Amino acid sequence: MRNGVCGSRTGLRAERKALLLEIYEKLFAAFGPQHWWPARTPFEVILGAILAQNTAWKNAAAAIANLDRNGLLSLEGLCGLDGAQLEALVRPSGFYRQKAKRIMTFCDHIQKNYHGCLEQFLDQDMEPLRQELLTIRGIGPETADSIVLYAAFKPSFVVDAYTWRIFSRHAWIDETISYDDLREYFMEALELDVQMYQEFHALVVRTGHLYCRRKPLCQMCPLGGYFDGLVFLRP
DNA sequence: GTCCAGGGCCTAC
DNA sequence: GTAGGCCATGGA
């Protein structure tokens, strides 16, 4: 039993679905469409997903701009590059040695297994694609889900640090929840909907940027029972 | 000068 | 299986 409403699995799922939809609608009403992912091609989404790992987007964007200036926003372009050159170009994104290697590893994987055809790789069913991404060194669950959702347009919910912070601080989830369990928390309750998943994740990040960064946070954040002038939801 | 950002890997227990 | 250290730049 939770909230004295219904103890059945189906009931809990319905309850959770209603909560999630209400959160989504309030965020959408507050912020509107976020137009994510900020990239022109699936390959650029993938580069961005790797370059943004534990990094402010602005820094990742600077690295992408460097690649763009050199005409390197393509698999073929990057494959002709040596490691040191790529490191120099992605330097603004931080962790640049790791990230250069991760990008190279990804490109090698597509070259070897798909003859350089990214479309063929992305065209797989969702689960096999996700699992294959997770076998590539440097691509963890969040990066994989970002690629699946925003580059392959398949409904895999993206969980990030803001999702965890916002939802745990509201006590909607247990703060010790694992990545996969938190992803399931969304995907079990919500219909599989690419556009909605894209928008939901983007809105969560927007909310996190404004109200839920590590430190200043939650005096002003939804935990107080209000959010940007809106009455917010309580668990 | 200090803290933080749209993670992931490796090692030690 | 999980806590802790490490990777690194740029902005507040």
Structure description:
The structure is a single chain. Helices cover 60% and strands 2% of the residues. The model is unreliable at 1-5 and 216-231 (pLDDT under 50). It is globular, with a radius of gyration of 19 Å. It is built from 12 helices and 2 strands, in the order ααααααααααααββ. The structure holds a DNA duplex (13 and 12 nucleotides).
Bulk shape: globular
Architecture of the largest domain, according to CATH? Orthogonal Bundle
Radius of gyration: 19 Å
Sheet with most strands: strand arrangement: 1-2
CATH topology of the largest domain: Endonuclease III, domain 1
Quaternary structure type:
single chain
Average pLDDT across residues? 89
- Give the CATH H-level superfamily of the largest domain: Hypothetical protein, domain 2
Supply database-style keywords.
235 residues; mainly alpha; Endonuclease Iii, domain 2; Endonuclease III, domain 1; 12 helices; 2 strands; 60% helix; 2% strand; DNA-binding
